[in-house]
Structure formats: C-alpha cells, structure tokens
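Support case: user asked for a sample of complex input and structure output to validate their parser. Sending the pair below.
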Amino acid sequence: MTRRPHSINDFLGASVSKILIAINAIFAVIYFCVLVFFFPIGNVALFGFLVLGELFHMWQLFTFLYTVWERKKTAAPNPNYYPAVDVYITVAGEPISIIEETLKGIKAMDYPAFDIFVLNDGFVAQKDNWQEVEGLANRYGATAITRRVGGGAKAGNINNAVKETRNAFIAIFDADHVPHPDFLKKTMPHFSDENVGFVQSPQYYKNFNTNLITKGSWEQQQLFFGPICEGKNRLNSATMCGTNMVIRRTSLELVGGMCEESIAEDFATGMFMHQRGLTSVYVAEVLAEGLAPEDFLSYYKQQLRWARGALDVAFKYNVIFAKGLTMPQRIQYTASVSFFFSGIFVIMNAIIPLIFFFTGAVPFVISTMLLAVVFLPYIFITLYTLQTASNFSFTYQSLAFSVSSFSIHMSALLSALSGRKATFEITSKKKISGDFLNLVRPHIAYIILVAIGIAYALYREGLTASVVANTAWAVLNAAIFSEFIFAAMPNNKVKDTVSKGRKVAATIITSPKKMLKQI
Amino acid sequence: MDTDNTQTFFARNKATIAIVGCMVLVTLLSVAFFLKQSLRLDEAQSLWQTSHSLAKMYNIIGQDVHVPLYHTILHYWQVFFGSRVPVARLLSLVFFILSIPALFRLTKLLYGEEAAIFAILLFSISPFMNWYGNEIRMYSLFTLMVILNLYYFIRIYKERDTPEQQGSAWVWYGVTALLGIYSHYFFFFALTSEVVLFLSHRSLFPSYALKRFLVIASIMIISFLPWIWYVMHLGTISNSSPLLQAPNSVNIFNTFSQFLFGFQIDYVNTILVSLWPVTVLLGFLALRTKRKLTVDTAFIIICFIAPNVCAFVVSSFVRPLYLSRYLILTLPPLYMLLSALAVSYPQNIKRIFMGVLIAVMLGTLTAEIVSSQTPVKENYKQVTDYLEATASPQDVVLVSAPFTVYPIDYYYNGPVAIYTLPVWDRSSYGAIPPFDAATLPEQVKKLTKNSRNVWVILSYDQGYEDIIHSYFDNNYQQLLVKNFSSNLNLYEYKVRY
C-alpha cells in the first residue's frame, strides 16, 4: 500500500474495471441470496428487518455500480463558443472578506465578455453588512442587486436577478466559492449544443484539512463529485448543485425560474430541466474552490438541510414517476433521494446486536462462520470498488460520517413526514466554538447501551459465540459512531497547517443540499 | 550522553536487534517447551521412515503423500547428530530460525523496516509456527522455501533495471523453486500465484523474463519427473494417510484462526473465530486517502488467498486435502499483510492494533503450551510411561487406529505385547487392512487369548473408534479409563480372572 501525493483533481477521472463491477455484483447477489433463502430463520421480525436493510443496501450498491459502470468524456461541440455571461454571486450576510475573495476570483476570470452581479440578500435577511456589500460591489465594478422584498430564499434572490439582467447565460457562485480563471472557458463551450440546459462543475473544499469536520465533509464530497457525478453525466442526469455552475437563461425561464417551493431549489430545478428534455453536462475538473463548514453545528445544519430538501423533493415531486424523465434519470434521481432514507436502515442494523444482548433473539440460526464466508468477500470487494471508483479517495472518515448521519437523516425524515415547514436558515458565517455533544446523543446512547447490553448478555448466557459475534458487530458500529462523536468534541483539529490567517471561517451554504449522495 | 549513545545504537541497529531477538526467542521457547513434548504420530512416522536406508525410505515416502527433500536431510541429520526426538526436532527449529531473517528481508522489500520487524515478531510468537517449527516434519522447511522463493521472485521484478543484481536473484529463484517442490506438493500453489502475477503484469518483468522462467520451469519439470514416475510406479499413494473429511466454512476459519492463534480447545477457538466482524472494522480503518492497493500487495493477497481457495475447491470436488499445516505456505503472506496494514494505520490505531494482536497471540501461545487439552497434543509418551508402570506381562495392548502404533512403539520399553486393531503387520507390504466390525470379536479373542487384562489405546478416530469402544464396554469389565490428551484415551478391561 503506497501513499500518493495530493492533487486537487485526485478524486476525479478514475474508472472502474467492468470485471470488478461484475464480480462485485455477483458477490453481492450471492450474499443476499444466501442470507435470504438459505439461512434458517430465527426471530422472524429481526430477520425481516435484516432483509429489508440488506435490500436497501443492494439498491444502493447496484445503483452505484450502474452509475460508475462507465464514464463519458464530454467534449464540447465548439471549443471556441464564448457567448456573454452574467455572473452571479449569491450573498446573504457573509463576511465581506469572503465575498471580496470571490469577487477577485471572478474579476480574474479569463473570458471575453461577462458582467458581474452581487445578489445581495443582506437587506431582506436583516444582516448588518448589506450596505458594505453594495460598496464592495461598486469597488470591483460589479452591480449589486439588493432585494427589498424577500421571499423564495436563494432561489428568489436568483429569480429576482434574472429579471434585471440580460445575457443569455448565467454563472452562479456562492459567496465563498472562488472560481479559477478558466472557469468560463471550460464550461461555456458546452452550450454550443443548444439542448444543454446547465453545466455543473465540482465543489472543492480548500479548507478540507482544517479539522475533523472539514476533513469528513470533504471526504464525503469526493465520492459524490467524483465517481457519482461523473456517472450521472453519462446518463444525462447531472445534479444541479447551486454553485460553480452555468445555466442557459432560456432553459431557466422554460422551467419557471429557480424552484422557490423547495429548499432543494437547485436539485429540483435541475430535475425540471431534465423533465423538459434538456440535457446537462458535468465538467469533471475543479474549477472553483470553496469552504467546508468548520464546526460541528454548521455541518449538522448543512446536512440536515440537504436531507430535508431531498426528502421534500422525493415526497413532493415523486421522482420515480415524474413525467418526462428517462428511465436512467428516474433511477438516478431515486438513488439520490433514497440516500437520505439510509438512516432507517443504519438504525435497524445497529439495533440487531442490542436486541440480542437484551433478549437473546437473533435473525437467523447459523454458524457465524457461514455468514462470514458470504459476507466478507462481498464487503471487501465493495470497499475496493468504492476505492477504485473514487481514485482511492474514499476513506474511513467519509464512511463513518455517512453512516453516523443516520440521526440527521431520521430527523429530516420525521420532519418531512410530519409536514413541518422547512425553513431556509442561514448558518453562522463564523466558526462556532464549543462542543456539540448534544447533537450526537443518539450515538453516545448507543455506545452506553452496547456496554450495558454486553454485560447483561454475559450475565445471561456467559461468553458464548453468539455474544462474541454480536459484541464484535456492536463494537464495529460503536467505532464508526465514535468518529462522529470525536468530531463533535471541541478541539477536533487534524492539523494546524491549513487555513492559517483565515480568521473568519465559513459555513457557507447559501444553497441547501448542494450535494445529494447515493452512498 | 551515555543514554543518547545507547538510544542511537538501538535506533541504528533496530533491525539487527529485532532479528536476533526473535531468533533467540524462538530458540528459548523451543528449548523450554516444545522440544520436551511427547512424540506425536506424524513425528514417529518421520523417524520410522528415515531410520531405513535411503532406498527403503524413498519407497516408504513414495507410498505416502510427501516429497523426499526433508526426509533426506533428516536421514543424514540423524546420521550425524543421533535420532533422539529433541535432536530430530532441532532440524525443524533450524529452518524456523532461518525463516526469520528471510521473512524480514521479504517484508522489508515490500513494506519497509517497520512492517518487517512487526512481521517477524508475529512470526516468532506465532503458536502455529512454533508448533511446526519444532515438529519432526517438513513444514518449517517448506515455509522457509516459500519465503525465499517469494523473496527472489519479487526481486526479479523489483530489480529489473539493475541486471547485475538480478542475475543472482534468478539463480536463487530457480534453486529455491526446485528445493520447494521437493519440500511439499503444495509448493506448486506458491508457483501458481507467481504465474498469475507474471501473466497479469507482464510489463513489470524484464523482456527476457519469459524465456528465463521457461528455462527454470523446464529444469524443474525434468528434475521432478523422476520422482513422479517413481510414485506412479509404486502406485500405492496414501495407504497410511489419516482419513480426511471434505472441508466446510468452519475449516476455512479454523485455518485462519490457527495461523494466528494456534491450536486451541474448541471453546476458545469458537470464541476467537466469532470475532470475525472485527476484520470488517480493520478493513474500514484501512480506508485512507490515496492509499492505493499496489501490485505487490495484490500479489501477496493472491499468495494468501489462492492456495486456500484452490485447496478448498480440490478438497470439495476431487479429494480432501485441506489441512491447515499443508497451507502453511500462506502464513508468511498473512503476517506480511497484517504488518503492512498495521503500519498503514495512524499512530494511535497502529499501536492499539499491534498491541492487541501481540497480546492475544502471546496469550494463545501460552495456552497452547500449557493446556493438556490442546487439540494437537498427543501424549503418547505419558501413555507408554503409564503402561510401563502399570501393565503386567500377562496383559496385552491393543492400539487403534493402527498407524498410531508408531509413537507407542517408539516409547514403549515394557514387556507387554502390542497389537493393532484392525490387525496390521507393518513389516508387510501394502495398505493397512480395512476395519471390519464382523471380524472384530474374532480378532480380539485371538489377540487376548492368553491375557489377563487388555489395555486399549484409542486415538485418531478413523470412523470405527466408537464400534471398538462399545465392543469392549459390552463384552468386558472396564477397570480403568484415562485421558492423556485431546482424543487420546486409555482403557483397561478384564479378560479373565
């Protein structure tokens, strides 16, 4: 095992051998079939839970394998197609220094014709610096568009600006996402195909190495913006992510502007465009650099918004039967939103050893080694496929963060099911210090229950093979949750080498749910 | 100042100290514990086989399931140093000790010094290696040959740009391959793994590699054919080999468990293998940014998995031959992988992983040494000591399975006649006669005709132990039952008053 030096585009461009994908699929089917059809059933309810959970995992795995099966190199039809562009920076009270950096980046873009607009929602969001933002825009030759009447959150801000600007194409950046000079030159030529509705590029977190939160956030992003987005591109299902993207004005108008009814406005708008038969392009190259949330509270809120937004889209627009989508697009959108149901299945899997500890009930009655024979090859090949697909960017921490987010996903699911109105809450733009252990109470509770459960099971039946095997599973879950708990503690720094001098940290997210992941 | 110098000395000579330390450790373990153990069935067979002239010895081995290199060396070893059990075991210990620096160099070549030190530490405290590193069998020689052969094979592609160094690697590769196939038939699995790497990564090797491999393969085939011809000519393979069952999933996990934790009683072994979900966590923890699976590691994984899978498949569909000791060739790759995994972890996890693994292995090594119920222990010496002290000349000893008469015969110096059930004349040519329940009463009656008491030693159940046991229980008065080690029982019955 060797370690390669880090490069900004490392997570992109890897391809997975079709043989590996096929082997992975075969082992998964063998595992599932043996589990469901050949193991003698123990407790029927537990067995049902387990099978349901595995069914969901199979869905996740197979949609992932389908997504990464192939990647399309998208060549622009006319590499010299450089029409005029309106460049939007969406602002809602972010610190001036952050906006200024973004403005500098946009000004430095190497492109023949573009106008800059600062979409200043500071006034309607009642932020103190809204006038400062106007002054800043003037200094950089940009036009500030300050709404006086709110509504529609970020989508409303953009729709307002669309009415006041004229160019045929609109590039959108969040306040903290600084484009590279070649951003427009790399994205615009794709619009020479008149059917292309939007072009999306990855979100890169330049502060990824600041602490466990930024690291975890970025490592989660890599799998999505790497193999998954590249695979979606092949299937004309690129996810619109709200920043680092360009939209054709007529396409946006065709779908009635950015969707204001959902806090997943970008995701929904992208889907509406696909429903209208428009195509999308994902440019697999980092063309802008942003900031990850640096504290656990901001991370938590960000994830919660993404989850809630995706679930709203799932329930409101019924992605499975939405008109106009092709079958691959339906699969992709369903896969994206279904990720946020994974909390249910994480809980179900985690709870099985606990039920054993306290009741002795097991899902099936077999030699634990028999399970190992079918499970271990399946899980290790799946891990290897994930590693290969992400160009070895998929990490333990990203896995731990994804699995541990079950509490967030459950919270979003419950609020979506209860019909509670989702609000577009702007997160603090300054790093919030402190420990956030209250946010990981379910995880801590699980570990405590495991400890008590092991003691009780030992008291009930002594050190048996079943107790040991269930303890091992519970420890596995606890170890994964621990990563999340550590991240919620104060002083969770990875290194002090990055982001020195950045006194003001960003939590970004003018756009909720930029990312919708399958895995 | 002195402290600094001492620290510098240790830092500079860390590898040498580790290698020498591990060699001393296994020697001490051997002298203190393993050399003193009772002779076991397989060992007794080795001693009996090698006690003959070379021609007769090859004739016997040819009918067995093994190749003759180890027996030839052991034959001359005994000529020079004597044939006492500890002396014969020392030969295996020599191969075990030599394997330590060999494994160090192999692991260092792929994963660096830290991993290499950890690998040899695991190797030295391995209950499995310590067992076979002190057994009068070919397994430590086989292990040494596998390690050396892998080492020179890897050097061939690692040093493709330095032909002057490569020359010696080719020669030694050929030599170790040749010696390897004469140390155990399973060595072919090691060669198969190498062929897989060569064919799948042709570009790793120098352009002339194919030609050289073909030359070496030709030499090996020409050198091995006479032995194959001889074995075929005898046509009586495995007349006296133990009965093996077709393997199942439990056997696979028991093999891995034995590689790490040695031979434990069923309960402990079950607990250990039930911990397998922890391997999933170890796999998860290994997921680190930019940690790419290299060709080297893929090759070592193949070296570990392929022989196990092949042996399992062959055992399931052709002929049962799945035994953990035959698969000892996969033990060095396993330890190498664990070491590579350990050093890839962040510091804290690495320390915990190494500490826990070492602690558990030391614990199981201790249990293997101390427990009289260690499954592979065969206390035939204690049985014969007991018989010498207790049995009278009017008694008779019956042994089953028949081939277990070797270790009993080796130790027993008393006046009582020893026979086997079913009756087997070792000096006659041919296989052990099959057991026949119908003729058992007649055989027993004949063998005990003039005896007062009969002592029945039962071990190595070949499928009829219960029948023999029941027969005696139902027809004779039992006077005594005594267990000496796992599945080695002595019974005394009254024949006449």
